[in-house]
Amino acid sequence: MAWILIVLLILLGGLIAPFGDLLGTRIGKARFSILKLRPKKTATIVTIITGGFISAISIGSLILVSKEFRQRLFVDIPFLQKTLDESKRALLPLQEERKKLEEKIKNKEKELNKLKGNVKEFRRGNVVIKRGQTLFIAKVTSNPNIKLDLAKIYNSADRFVQKIVIPNKKETKNILLWRPSDISEIELVTAKGGDWIILIKSAANVLKGDNFVIVNPEVLQNKTIVRKEELIASEILEKNDLDYKNINSTIKTLLRKTRDKIKSRGSIVNEITTKGDFIKKIRDSIRINQNNKYLLEVLSLKDSKTADPIIVELNITKL
After folding, report:
1. If you average pLDDT over residues 253-272, what whole number do you get?
2. ∠119-123-124 over CA atoms, to 5°?
């Protein structure tokens, strides 16, 4: 049906268009005038009217012939227009709300940036204690008077930290802030028997002059980490590695393995102390025998517990 309608409209337009052109030409030749216009302009007006007539006939034909076109023109389009108008009216309050929300967000961003700036400016002060920093280490052994021993540790830690944070304050005050649950946990653990290490750490950065320091304590069993003459770690120097750069690299790797091993056992020390001029000893041994492989060993020189320093020596053995 749609194709038939299109063909009819084309044919109708084709028939009327020459008629309009012919009519305009005839009027021009007859020098006919409308409203005292020149004949040429009169012919142009007649041609325009003819074109409008073609459009009117086309639309009228569509209205008469096509039910779908009538539905679209007289029902759907007004409905869509009405819906569009209602939607625009409904959007107005939302647009106003959006503007208000955007304004609030901008204000909050300004406040946040200002707050960040203030915090940054404030934290530029003299930071004397960093978050997570160990402030005090104490050893304690379970006994009937454990609570009294713990109180002495807390007081000693208070005095020590006060000298760092408020060095000019002469009177002693409690500067450490403890959570009651932490105190209870320490008492519960240390009452079980055995030897313990109490680590008192800072829970936040602290500026010089602050009036308090929030602490985050830990309780660790004071156990043996290494024993005297214990082999902790070893590495092999191949024949192709007997140069200064490779020797140094192997020694660094060996000491790193040693540190990782004692950490995994529960040691809280961060550095390993080496005794003797082992670098010279290793170089002298290698200089004498260039065609051999060597075994490097890290040996403990003393028994060391959780908080004790780890003291080692490096031995070199020809393989």
Report:
1. 89
2. 120
276-287 per-position pLDDT tens digit = 776 677 767 666
In the beta sheet, which residues pair with residue 198? 138, 219
pLDDT tens digits, 290-317: 667 888 889 999 999 999 999 998 888 8
Cα-to-chain-centroid distance, residue 173: 40
Give every CB contact of residue 123 below 8 A, 6+ residues apart in sequence: 205, 207
Q: Quote the tokens at residue 194.
A: 């055995």
| DSSP conformation letters of 153-202 | HHHHHHHHHHHHH-TT--S----EE--HHHHHHHHHHHTTSSEEEEEEEE
CB under 8 Å, gap of 24 or more: what pairs does 112-118 form?
none
Residue type, 102: E
Least confident range of 109-118, 205-214, 219-228: 109-118
Q: How far apart are CA 220 and CA 266, in angstroms?
A: 8
Please give the structure tokens belonging to residue 35. 């409203």
- CB atoms < 10 A from the CB of 221, how many? 13
Between vectors from CA 63 to CA 61 and to CA 69, what angle results, nearest 5°?
A: 120
Place of tokens 């409209």: 9
137: closest CA among 159, 109, 156? 156
Residue 101 in tokens: 């929300």
**In the block, residue with structure tokens 């063909």:** 7
State whether residue 79 is helix, strand or coil: helix
Backbone CA torsion sign across 74, 77, 81, 84 = positive
- What confidence score (pLDDT) does residue 137 get? 92
Residue 54: name the closest of 23, 22, 9 by CA: 9
